[in-house]
Design a protein that fits this description.
Twelve copies of one chain form a homododecamer. By secondary structure, chain A is α+β, with helices and mostly antiparallel strands. Chain A has a single domain, classed as Flavin-binding protein dodecin (Dodecin subunit-like), CATH 3.30.1660.10. Chain A is built from one helix and three strands, in the order E-H-E-E. The interface between C and F is medium-sized, with 11 and 17 residues.
Chain lengths: 69, 69, 69, 69, 69, 69, 69, 69, 69, 69, 69, 69
Amino acid sequence: MKDPVYKTVELTGTSTTTIEDAVNKALKRAHKTIKGLRWFQVTETRGSIDKGQVHQWQVTLKAGFEIQD
Amino acid sequence: MKDPVYKTVELTGTSTTTIEDAVNKALKRAHKTIKGLRWFQVTETRGSIDKGQVHQWQVTLKAGFEIQD
Amino acid sequence: MKDPVYKTVELTGTSTTTIEDAVNKALKRAHKTIKGLRWFQVTETRGSIDKGQVHQWQVTLKAGFEIQD
Amino acid sequence: MKDPVYKTVELTGTSTTTIEDAVNKALKRAHKTIKGLRWFQVTETRGSIDKGQVHQWQVTLKAGFEIQD
Amino acid sequence: MKDPVYKTVELTGTSTTTIEDAVNKALKRAHKTIKGLRWFQVTETRGSIDKGQVHQWQVTLKAGFEIQD
Amino acid sequence: MKDPVYKTVELTGTSTTTIEDAVNKALKRAHKTIKGLRWFQVTETRGSIDKGQVHQWQVTLKAGFEIQD
Amino acid sequence: MKDPVYKTVELTGTSTTTIEDAVNKALKRAHKTIKGLRWFQVTETRGSIDKGQVHQWQVTLKAGFEIQD
Amino acid sequence: MKDPVYKTVELTGTSTTTIEDAVNKALKRAHKTIKGLRWFQVTETRGSIDKGQVHQWQVTLKAGFEIQD
Amino acid sequence: MKDPVYKTVELTGTSTTTIEDAVNKALKRAHKTIKGLRWFQVTETRGSIDKGQVHQWQVTLKAGFEIQD
Amino acid sequence: MKDPVYKTVELTGTSTTTIEDAVNKALKRAHKTIKGLRWFQVTETRGSIDKGQVHQWQVTLKAGFEIQD
Amino acid sequence: MKDPVYKTVELTGTSTTTIEDAVNKALKRAHKTIKGLRWFQVTETRGSIDKGQVHQWQVTLKAGFEIQD
Amino acid sequence: MKDPVYKTVELTGTSTTTIEDAVNKALKRAHKTIKGLRWFQVTETRGSIDKGQVHQWQVTLKAGFEIQD
């Protein structure tokens, strides 16, 4: 079966600094247990607020990887 | 890495009585194998019909939990 | 033609008590004239308000049934 | 100007018991400061989880009322 | 607990021939490790292009299965 | 009244072979009782699974026809 | 059964002049066979073009009416 | 802080004549208490029906204005 | 190749008077450079506000035309 | 500037046989004037009906290509 | 009434530098008049362009706070 | 014809660093051939992954410009 099949997982990364950092935090953590992560798509950008400033960015994304035989 | 990362799973709970019961059935079952479930979001409410009444509520939800190291 | 074909109708059930009751009211009424209702999907949950409380739940759903020959 | 104009506010009610109770909690609280609430529409049903059961239902809704002169 | 609970996984099947083949490729691969797959829903149809023709169909779907005790 | 008015019905066709066949099955069945079907739009592609292969394609579509006087 | 149940039909009205006229054309036609039409919601506004001008407005709407016993 | 911040309110204007009139009715009323309304976006077009004709257009819109210091 | 292929362009027409006029303004302008415009679909209705009235209607639409050989 | 930039065009391919053929017809035609088409995404599947069968499949897709310097 | 009720407001923050800065500008301004802002969700990211570069980021978000007694 | 008409193009900018940089890359490139770009709206944020980190941000946006006579 030469046609690859991919699976998607939904993750939420968090960061106190930027949206990009939250995405990278999520991918770095997923990389520990999932091999071959290939692409992602941001599906939601939320966060918590403290004293009128963003306290924590919470970025949800779908990340896809090829299922290995 | 102090910023937590969460994963989401999509479940469908069923119940012959209420929407709330279907959600709780799904969470109770997931709790057996997933530690640290934190929040959920209902994404679809469907069901089967028998003799002009709801036979089974089928409630789909996303449930999030923190990925542990 | 052995492959079944289904039709969907959109209904709004109402109730002064619960969402589940509104769905059942709609299905019970539809059952009087449509045979073979099989499944439903809730598409909207609205209602009217009286004195700061829900006066009437208005739950819209699609209900499917097999078209008979 | 005889044609009425309405305004919508977005609220999130919470409850440890049912979705209906969360909606009523939100409407009861809004009723203290807004006169003439007329209709609502549920836009999101979420919640927090504790020990594999729903800890708190969080139901977001839009509620409309007529703007008085 | 007699009410069944289902889990959904998101997969992307690929094929050089048809949309149907891409779906079947995804299901065939998932079937190796997941027992009791019951239903699917196509959520996205994409693909890559080579010389003005479809090179690879990429069909994303959600597939549901009953969680066994 | 020279401006035509159309009505839309929602159907789900099924097939064990292809998406196109499921659509044609639905249209063929609807054609028995509805005259003047003009256009359709696919709104959902689902199916049931058996032994890791598509058992039945379930394609939902809206079909429009002109209301005759 | 005092709680009313409503049904929705989807119609497309057409007009060479305005969106409002297309909606009224659809409602006028539906009124011939459906009693008790109560509300509508516009779901799509399309049209055909001739010589760089709108030739025909095509406005799709859902119209609801109470199901009578 | 030179970068402006805007707030959005959701309104529903009504009219017995046109969609445009319903929007203007909503804006005229909001203008009495909100200074600096800048833009709007129509989010829903509904209405009530009487004797097969539109009785009242109900047009929902979001209107944005700059928050003043 | 007898099966026609169409292309869609997205335009925003503006008008100080009506939604219909904004659509016609967009089509009239596009007609200067694109031959064979066939259909359109309104995708957004926005506008600017001046003194509590609509100053400019901004109607976005997709317009399709057949690609000529 | 080493980071590539892509442009997307929206096309509708037609076919009397299959969805796949309609997509390929659109890509083949676009390939005549656009170099470097890389990926596509199906956004709508419609069609015309004749005598209770699909007369013409109309498949809308977005196709992306790299903008060359 | 121990179950908290939340209200959501929709804001658009602007910035010449980053998306994050636009969000923080909106929250900082809202904090002046609203106590207890708890969470936010980004709903739209737009901007104005000048000479082929982003001139102003315009980020719309919903921000929620607990209604105090 | 004093009412301006705008056209929208859909672009995907890429960057190895930030979302903002990807947007600016797309606008800078489009500016070479399109005069008068006025506004943009981000419609999708995706990317490729390498070794558990974002390799390339891929940000899709619609950019609008006034059609000149």
